[in-house]
Amino acid sequence: MPRERGEKVIATNRRARHEYAIEKTYEAGLVLTGTEVKSLRQGRANLSDGYAYIDGGQAYLDAVNIPEYSQGHWTNHSAKRTRKLLLHKDEIVKLSHAISAGGYTLVPLKLYFSDGRAKVEIAVAKGKREFEKRQTIREREDKREAERAMRTKNRLGD
């Protein structure tokens, strides 16, 4: 049986990009049980309430919902358990310094399989205020409107 190649996205946290200004992203492995991997392979996960934290020199992912595996029995996992993140020691030190600076948090952006291994993309992020969120939406709409105008101009010019 050939190994999986490439990247298969399971879940993305679209709300995080709206709520936070993303500073830097990191790729981390996850310590999972067998039924969690099987549930992820079915494409079932929810990152919207999730967050990461560092405790005792280790990184953890909390409140990420991976539903129970449908064919699992007594070996099934709990859906919102705390999961350990696999990062290099220097990455953990950088993350802890960034968080301790104040105003920053760790949020999961994407959960995916990379060459058959479960990975999570976490970001050092700073919370946006309400007017920043409106400004981001306005910029996106202005850009979309400008592209639409250019498209119609190019059609009429041809």
From TrEMBL:
Keywords assigned by UniProt, alphabetized: Cytoplasm, RNA-binding
Pfam families: SmpB (PF01668)
Signal peptide location: none
BP GO annotations: trans-translation; trans-translation-dependent protein tagging
Principal location class: cytoplasm
Localization per Swiss-Prot or TrEMBL: Cytoplasm
A single Gene Ontology CC term: cytosol
Region (Disordered): 135-158
GO MF, one example: RNA binding
Family per record: Belongs to the SmpB family.
Function: Required for rescue of stalled ribosomes mediated by trans-translation. Binds to transfer-messenger RNA (tmRNA), required for stable association of tmRNA with ribosomes. tmRNA and SmpB together mimic tRNA shape, replacing the anticodon stem-loop with SmpB. tmRNA is encoded by the ssrA gene; the 2 termini fold to resemble tRNA(Ala) and it encodes a 'tag peptide', a short internal open reading frame. During trans-translation Ala-aminoacylated tmRNA acts like a tRNA, entering the A-site of stalled ribosomes, displacing the stalled mRNA.
PANTHER family: SSRA-BINDING PROTEIN, TMRNA-BINDING COMPONENT OF TRANS-TRANSLATION TAGGING COMPLEX
NCBIfam families assigned: PRK05422.1 (NF003843), smpB (TIGR00086)
Name of the protein this chain belongs to: SsrA-binding protein
Organism the protein comes from: Candidatus Microbacterium phytovorans
